[in-house]
Amino acid sequence: MPKDRSPTRIQKRNRANILEAALEVFSQNGFRGATVDQVATAAGLSKPNLLYYFPSKEAIFTALLSELLDTWLDPLREIDPTGDPMEEILAYVQRKLQMSQDMPRESRLFANEIVQGAPRMIDTLSTDLRALVDDTETVFLGWMDAGRIARVHPRHLLFSIWSLTQHYADFEVQVRTLMTPEDPFDGAAVFLETLYRRMLAPQS
């Protein structure tokens, strides 16, 4: 979209519609399986009209990832180093679980990108996410050194939280099929809190 002037209200609306449609298409089909035609149809626009805003499928996908990334990292940034360690970690687990419930398409979008080798995210993984994980590891190790939580590998702790919470979004069809008629999220929060409380309880 031309940048020599501020976008109009209609242009802002069309751009938002395109990104919303792209989220649906890419989360279902992955980057390789999605097409510009599919996104245009889902957005209710012609292909030439869509290409006015984004010149390629790559441009749409990159814009979508960029806009979602901060939202995806915010729960980790909210961990308070001065707070109670157990409660801070459990609150992070619950925030991640809530995101899986509220934002399953976004979770699948990132999962598909990572499975493909993260060609459009590798720089972010190597910089922004790596720096955030480094900082979080420092916080976790400080809590462990002070005897406030059990000593476990801090990065594997994060990986386990990501796996156990995002599974409910990335494998939603399987989870809901196996849990029917129970809503899987009804018991997930209690299960995960019990799991991490037991694992991280300081040794007497």
From TrEMBL:
Q: Which Pfam families match?
A: TetR_C_3, TetR_N
What is a single molecular function from GO for this protein?
DNA-binding transcription factor activity
Q: Which InterPro entries match?
A: Homeodomain-like_sf, HTH-type_TetR-like_transc_reg, HTH_TetR, Tet_transcr_reg_TetR-rel_C_sf, Tscrpt_reg_YcdC_C
Which keywords, in A-to-Z order, does the entry hold? DNA-binding
Q: Could you tell me which residues form the DNA-binding region?
A: 35-54
The keyword Cell cycle belongs to this UniProt entry's keyword annotation: no
Which GO terms fall under biological process for this protein?
negative regulation of DNA-templated transcription
| UniProt-listed PROSITE patterns | HTH_TETR_2 (PS50977)
- Specify the HTH tetR-type domain's residue ranges: 12-72
**Does Aminoacyl-tRNA synthetase show up as a keyword for this record?**
no
Supply the name of the protein: HTH-type transcriptional regulator RutR
